[in-house]
Amino acid sequence: MTDEHTEARPALSRDELAGRLTEVFDVVGPLYRRVHRKVEQTAPIEGLSVGVRAVLDLLRAQGPTTVPQMARAQALSRQFVQRMVNDATRHGLVESVANPAHRRSSLIRLTDEGRAAISAVRARELALLRRVDGDLTMADVDACLRVLGAMHTLFVDVDVDVDVD
Fold first, then answer.
1. How confident is the model at residue 102 (pLDDT cuts 50, 70, 90)?
2. Mean pLDDT (whole number) for 94-108
3. For 155, phi and psi rounded to 5 degrees?
């Protein structure tokens, strides 16, 4: 017995795939902007901008990291990430520490206050995401991640170290 989630389907032609992937962009762009706005609306509880929140979450996941590494990981300019790190530092959420691998590029790490702030934001976000409907399966999420990963790979060579904001 198969359903729409598990039914085997033939691979799409390149033209069909390109057309369907434009539909993904049509959903991802507005979704990103709505999530961005939601974070802006709720982050003041911890005093975080969207950019600072992204820095804190990256540090939570990866541990102490340099600004250039954060910029590459987030596909943002180094200048923008540096401004977000400076803002987070002013609020006591991150601190610079010596980098044994590179004298001129300090490691940025979370402070206890930063760890608490990003933990609170993530807890609130997880509570919100628990409300997603749709009988989604792990296979659905895996497929979504696979498609978005393939699309990301297509654009991996785009130079993001240009400040446009």
1. confident
2. 90
3. -110, 15
Q: How far apart are CA 111 and CA 81, in angstroms?
A: 17
In whole angstroms, what is the distance from residue 129 CA to residue 133 CA?
9
Residue found by looking up tokens 């979504």 in the block? 144
Over residues 88-102, mean pLDDT: 92
Q: How many CB atoms lie within 10 A of CB 36?
A: 11
Is this prediction's pTM over 0.70?
yes
* Cα distances (Å, whole numbers) of residue 93 to 10, 56, 68, 104, 128: 50, 8, 19, 21, 24
The answer to whether the Cα torsion of 149, 143, 32, 125 is positive or negative is: negative
Dist. CA 145–CA 161, nearest whole Å: 25
Task: With CA atoms as reference, report the closest residue to 115 among 85, 97, 94, 86.
Answer: 94
Q: Are 108 and 74 in contact (CB under 8 A)?
A: no
Q: Are 102 and 93 in contact (CB under 8 A)?
A: no
Closest CA to 73 of 83, 60, 88, 58: 58
| Beta-strand relationship, 107-110 and 94-97 | antiparallel
